[in-house]
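Box S2. Input/output pair 1.
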Amino acid sequence: MPRVRVASLVVALLALPLAVAPAHALQASACEFSFVVTISPGTGVTPNKGTISAPLGGSITCVGEVSGTGQVGIEGTYGATTPGGGDTCALGSGGGTLTIKIGTTAKSGAFSFHRAGAAGAFTGLIEGMGNLRGGFAFQPTTGDCVQTKVTKANVTGVGVLSHV
């Protein structure tokens, strides 16, 4: 994702919580992340359900109330709540546990996501850090969605970590 688009998205996302909470009550951080996710049994043309996994080791950088560079990882499921009976390359949803480690402490919490094609949105609550929400890009690296199921993908995105 080009840096200019990421920076623009971060600015736009930071403005969202300011519209709903008084400025003096909000503590926020802008975060940029990337990781490789394994999708099992994979998503393709036919709707299905399965698991997603990206062990702690992806990268995350946050600036603001929580600042620093660290690691990110996810474990969860996909397809259980997607209309049509499961995920396809065109449409997906799921959730699970998101872990962020900045410094020496790792914090985890529940997250959910919705995806349309190669773009999506997520939200989560990270215990001890706050609410995390933002957007992501999904780029298949193993599989093409037509001939073979996508079983691995690069995920990159930005989000706002905020708590009041």
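Box S3. Input/output pair 2.
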Amino acid sequence: MTKRLTLLCLLAGMLALAPAVWAQGQSGTLEITGVPADVPAGRYDRQAGVFSADVSAIEGALVHVTFEEVKIVGQTMEWRTDDDYLIFTGGATLTKEDFTVTGDTLEYFGKEKKLHAVGSVVVVTDDATVYANELVYDEETDEAVFTGQVKVVFDDGVLEGEKFVMFLEKSELQFFGAFQGTFETD
């Protein structure tokens, strides 16, 4: 019965997400897991173009959305298909080919191609792990702005401050205001 509910939710979610996905020429999937068959987990308001799911009260239940190389997982989700806005809360995680972002809240603004993460933000890349209170990532410029108790951990050192901008394509980091760092040298 749970498999049938998952399949039904997957089908409903794909229909709900279809306008946004087709508009971008991408294919995606939605899956809600760990929900008993008799418990409502999500809804789609076709007229408003809003799909929502909340499994936060169900231990172990999660909402998964995957678009090509991007996967987002959390406990509460709202997707507004008309303006391509997606918000995940409840310990959300976004995984893309070259980085992973976790935070209390993850918002994706599809038209602007921006990601906003707030609360206990952790970003893991091949080169570093960054901890911060907030992150704004712009896909167009490939820039990540970290603010609030920022800590960047590299293999050979640690940097700490209040605002850092990471230029991902250039592997460059820019500091704002006071900061401190420690490094190991050979």
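Caption for Box S3: Residues 98-186 form a domain with the lipopolysaccharide transport protein A fold fold (CATH 2.60.450.10). Confidence is low (pLDDT under 50) at residues 1-24.
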